[in-house]
Amino acid sequence: MANITDLEAEGTIPMSRWEMATSALAVGIGLFVFYTSFFGAFETLIQRAIFVALITCLGVLLFPLGKGKVWRPVGAVIDVLSAGFVVVSAAYIVLNFESIMIDLPFAENIDVVLGMGTLLIVLEMARRSASFVFPFIVGGVVLYALLGDKISGPFGHRGFDVYYLTEVIFLSDRGLWGMLVSIASTTLAAFILFGALLLHTGAGQTFFDLSARAGGKSPGGAAKIATIASGLFGSISGSSVANIATTGNFTIPLMKRLRYPAPFAGAVEAVASTGGQLAPPIMGTAAFVMAELVGVNYWTIAAVAFLPALLFYLGVFSTVHLIARRTNLGAVDQGELPNWREALNWRRMGPILAGVAGLAFGIVNGNSIQLTACYGMIGIVVAYAAATLTSGGTLREVVLTLLRALEDGGKGVVIVGILLVAAQVFVAIVNLTGVGVAVTSSILELADGNLIMIALIMAGVCLIAGMGLPTSAAYVLVAAVFAPVLIQQGLDPVTVHLFVLYYAVLSVITPPVCVAVFVAATVAKTNWMQVAGQSLRLGGTAYAIPMLMLIYPGLLLQGSALDIIMALLSGIGFTLGVAAFFAAQPIFHRFSWVLWLVPVALLLIPQWPATIAGVLIMILFWILARGQKPRAVPIPASEG
To answer: What number of CA atoms fall less than 13 Å from residue 496's CA on the CB side?
Structure first.
């Protein structure tokens, strides 16, 4: 689809009315986000209702019903009616918001029609923009609320009629206009726009150039470029699929050109892109939701997530490095790498530094998260304009770039916004019916109070529940229902929510429903099952990191300085040991790689003697392993 800014100096590229409307509305949403970030959001229900109406209308334009089909004219009529219906519902809320918040009105027939109709349209938009899985779950929970009195046993409840459900879903700030929608329309949207401005003003190329300089010259250089670049991109974009579609379309062909096996190339990109959803500042948009659900400051979430994210990428990078040495995967030719002067080009670095400075100013000044993001955006815009105009660029170039960023930022809000609207309904119904309490009781009874068993059950449940869902939806689903199980065991809520988030995110590389693997396999033009196998290998450490959080709270900056030091030493040693194990790195003969499990096991014991012993054994093994000469062994098809 054409962008509103795809213009040439002496003319314009023809655009259909549909495309013009899409681009204009996307820019409008971007401006709405910037305005409310700087001047402050409107009254709660007004802000949320306007936001839902805007993203629904843009969603209809981005994901038209029956596109390319002979019955598209019918789909167009349905799209127009759907968008109009949600606009009317939003206007109804805006006009009556004081009554809704003060009088708590009873639902009438018109409310039922508007409320349930809006919910159905939101679920349909979630189906179009993501998949049928999440709207199916949300729809099922709504039916469960209606029919719970017909269910016997612990999962039954008294049941609620459609009028009461309408009061919860439509005539309150718990359903369609609830807390998650507030997050989506303010803090989350502000950071998505911040990321779009950053990428469009030069950060994208800078990230890739720095990644190339950092890893390109060493063994497996192309895979290391993919690992670093995908981590940097993913920390801003917050979507593994979008990450693969951007960096992967360059890194995967580069790896294949250097004779890396296609499944290995796809797996590197899939795993590295997935890690971006666990890396601050955006964390796949989950950081903002988590801060609200847990009741802590967003910056606290970003801070405690840093060390686990560092371990994630240390594990991937180390595994790639060891496999590359063992199988003679080559580096990128020096002539293909940018020099440091190009990588640190001042015109591209200026907006990055100014954006970070803007964020720092907002943090030091104690401003709200969205205003802090706005200061970062202002810094980016000013620095980019100055750099462009002083280096021979034109004002038109500046305006078009900023419009393109606003447009992409507006479009970026749509999918996550729609999913969070549906997710808010899910949370409201879970709280209303008490099904979360029933699930908690069932898991506790099954595990008989054993924390290790509870954690393993939770990990499996989160991996399954998150399959086929985008990060934000997967996290909300599992957090709302399953997080209380671990919290009831006395664990810190932040630890529990990060535990849940990790396994919900890792579901995108976990067979059989591994969305990131499917996309990477498509780009690599290879069998997805082989990519999935290599992804499990490269991401082996990632599956253990949440368990490490439970064992070592110091990884989340909890406890004394000594606790944090022990956690960091154990975490690094554990990560390197698991990486060496999955890379089958021999220590002194071919099958000695299994001995890496010895220090790994020691480092799972949170006691100083075990930590010291594990670290010393790790150092000894690494010294011995470095003495092993790499053998020219290609990765066979079954591995590759």
So the answer is: 22
* 29 and 193 Cβ atoms separated by less than 8 Å: no
Q: What is the DSSP string of 423-458?
A: HHHHHHHHHHHTHHHHHHHHHHHHHTT-HHHHHHHH
> How high is the pLDDT of residue 208?
80
Q: What are phi and psi of 12, to 5 degrees?
A: -130, 155
> Exposure string (b/e) for 540-557, b if CB count within 10 Å is 16 or more?
bbbbbbbbbbbbbbbbbb
The answer to whether residues 477 and 433 touch, using CB atoms and an 8 Å cutoff, is no
Sign of CA dihedral 378, 384, 390, 396: negative
HSE at residue 421, side-chain half, CA atoms within 13 A, is 31
Backbone angles phi, psi at 172, to 5 degrees: -160, 180
Residue count of the chain: 640
Three-class secondary structure of residue 12 per DSSP: strand
Dihedral class, residue 525 (left if φ above 0, else alpha if ψ from -120 to 50, else beta): left
DSSP element (H, E) containing 11: strand 11-12
Backbone CA torsion sign across 502, 503, 504, 509 = positive
Residue 62 φ/ψ, nearest 5 degrees: -75, -35
119-155 pLDDT tens trace: 999 999 999 987 788 899 899 999 999 998 888 888 8
Give dist(CA 55, CA 61) in Å, integer: 10
Phi, then psi, of 155 in degrees rounded to 5:
-95, 0
Any idea of the CA torsion for 354, 360, 364, 369, to the nearest 10 degrees?
110
- Read off the pLDDT of residues 264-292 as tens digits, 9 standing for 90 and up: 999 999 999 888 888 887 676 777 888 88
> CA-CA distances (angstroms) from residue 350 to 206, 331, 354, 388, 403?
11, 30, 6, 10, 19
Region for 560 from its dihedrals, namely left if φ exceeds 0, alpha if ψ lies in -120 to 50, beta otherwise: beta
Residue whose tokens read 């993501």: 130
Contacts with 473 (C-beta within 8 Å, 6 or more apart), sequence order: 126, 130, 134, 419, 420, 422, 423
Q: Are 141 and 473 spatial neighbours (Cβ–Cβ below 8 Å)?
A: no
* Sign of the CA dihedral with 135 first, then 140, 141, and 147 last: positive
pTM of the predicted model as reported, rounded to 2 decimal places: 0.84
Mean pLDDT score across all residues of the chain: 86
Query: Per DSSP, what are the bridge partners of residue 12?
Result: 7
In the prediction, which pLDDT does 15 show? Answer: 66
Q: Which residues of the chain have pLDDT under 70?
A: 1-15, 237-238, 282, 284, 468, 627-640
Q: What is the DSSP letter of 336?
A: G
